[in-house]
Amino acid sequence: MTPVRQRRAGLGLILIRASAACLAVGSLAVVLWTGIDDRGAALAFGLLVAVGELTRWNGPEDRQAAPLAAAGALSYALLGENGGHPTHHGVAQIVAVVLAASLLGSVPHIARGHGPVLDPLARRVLTVGFAAVCFQPPYNRGMFGGWGGHAYALLLVALLALTALCDAVLAAAAAHSRTGWPFGPLLRDELRSLLGIGSAVCATGAVMALAVAVAGLWALPVFCLPLLLAQVSLRRYTAVRATYRQTIASLARATEIAGCTPAGHARRVAGLSRAVGRDLGLSEAELNVLEYAALMHDIGQLSLVDPVPAGATAVLPAAQQRRIALLGGAVVRQTGVDGAVAVVVERQADPYREQPMAARIVRAVNAFEEKARDAGPGGPLTALEELRLGTAGEYAPEVVEALARVLSRGCLTLPSVG
User: Fold this and answer.
1) Which residues of 238-270 are buried (b: 16+ CB within 10 A; e: fewer)?
2) Is 101 helix (H, G, I), strand (E, B) or coil?
3) Are the CB atoms for 308 and 260 separated by under 8 Å?
4) Please, are residues 114 and 196 in contact by the beta-carbon 8 Å criterion?
5) What does the alpha-carbon distance between residue 408 and residue 418 come to, in Å, rounded to a whole number?
6) Taking burial as the number of CB atoms within 10 A of a residue's CB, which of 49, 253, 281, 408 is the most buried?
7) Which stretches does DSSP call E strand in 11-89?
8) E strands along 152-192, which residues?
9) All residues at 6 or more sequence positions from 322 whose CB lies less than 8 Å from its CB, including other chains
């Protein structure tokens, strides 16, 4: 990404943070001036959000780290009645209470060095503010007075769906600004994540708002329990996935321990392959398959009688590369890893026009890593030029271009692609 594009992308993140800061400061000022209405509800929902932040899990891939806090904040934004009595808290009070509770619940995490990043807090302020603006002013003007039963419940679900979409757009925009990755695939991944814990958060927020309207604040601890159980299940699922990834990484190190490949080669190829795949717009599931295949792309060398010098398969004849790839795919299938990973490993030596995208990426990145390693101080630039010269028959041009873009973000001075 060029410096101009980096500055333009960074403006999006600055805009998100500035908007959240203005909304937060304005809301706090209004609350300090007018006071807090219905303090019991404010305290109950603030406590729920704070507890949700306390139970937040700092996972490596978690998009919704504090589902209970998010559901509590959304239910407060959509609260119209409390035990049959109309509420009168406004948008400013909702934002102020959620902000204060989120900061309070984050204190232990900050003390342990796991404090919230500014972006998730900015997203919560903006999304809660969006939901409150959509619901509270029309409700206080009596516009929803004729909505009852199923219609009112569907109204809350529709508002929560719009809020979830707003949050997904903000999350994708923030990630695009930080990384420069394509906005479309990032938004697609965020929308897909809504089908998991995101849908549970929205459903719990709507149910809690409806329950408090009928039964009062005592409904909060009852209806938040299912989401807590879902959060525990999500942690266990993520832990299993982390163990699965560690197992694959350990298998990949077998070629290094056997002296077939240099130390760290598989890890470097996997990291760079994932970055290239992200730049090309692969989904999260496709990126996982790509990463696992890149980690295990050399495992076929374990079946060779005579090891390849320095594990450099890119310089071997095509027939020998294909044989190693097929041996690697057979080994991967024996390990019980996803069959899609074995397919990528098997086809990494095929002509690129016949390869799936993941195999094209692994082939190009592996060749780049091997050539750059052996080319001296100017290795990355020399290796990239060799790959460009090979786009006529060996390497996919779009993959080489994406590789150049990824490398340019790493502050390498590269000639223009193209």
Assistant:
1) eeeeeeebeebbebbbbbbeeebbbeebbebbb
2) helix
3) yes
4) no
5) 14
6) 49
7) 81-82, 85-86
8) none
9) 349, 350
Q: For residue 145, what is the DSSP state? A: T
Query: What span, in angstroms and rounded, lies between the C-alpha atoms of 224 and 86?
Result: 22
pLDDT band at 248 (very low <50, low <70, confident <90, very high): confident
Q: Which of left, alpha, beta for 10 (phi over 0: left; psi -120 to 50: alpha)? A: alpha
Q: What are the structure tokens assigned to 272, written together?
A: 């760079």
CA gap 114, 106 in Å, rounded: 9
Q: If we measure between CA atoms, which residue out of 358, 230, 197 comes closest to residue 288?
A: 358
Q: Which of 40-54, 59-73, 152-166, 176-190 has the lowest mean pLDDT?
A: 59-73
For residues 143 and 137, give the distance between their C-alpha atoms in angstroms, rounded to a whole number: 9
Task: Burial-class residue 38 by CB neighbours within 10 Å (0-12, 13-18, 19+).
Answer: middle
Q: What is the DSSP string of 288-347?
A: HHHHHHHHTTTGGGGG-SSPPGGG-GGGS-HHHHHHHHHHHHHHHHHHT--HHHHHHHHT
Instruction: Report d(CA 289, CA 277) in Å as an integer.
Output: 11
In 194-218, which ranges are continuous DSSP H helix?
199-215
Helices (H) and strands (E) in the chain, counts: 17, 2
| Structure tokens, 409 | 């973000």
Whole-angstrom distance, CA of residue 101 vs CA of residue 115: 14
Residue 388 region, left (φ>0) first, then alpha (ψ -120 to 50), else beta? alpha
- Percent of all residues in the chain with a pLDDT value above 70, rounded to a whole number: 88
> What's the token pair of residue 152?
């009112």
**CA atoms 321, 324, 330, 331: torsion sign:** negative
Q: Is 85 exposed, middle or buried (0-12, 13-18, 19+ CB in 10 A)?
A: exposed
Q: How far apart are CA 202 and CA 207, in angstroms?
A: 9
Maximal CA-CA distance, the chain: 81
pLDDT tens per residue, range 54-91: 887 765 444 566 788 888 999 999 988 888 888 888 89
CB atoms within 10 A of CB 152: 16
Q: What pLDDT band is residue 133 in, cutting at 50, 70 and 90?
A: very high
Are 55 and 231 in contact, with CB atoms under 8 Å apart? yes
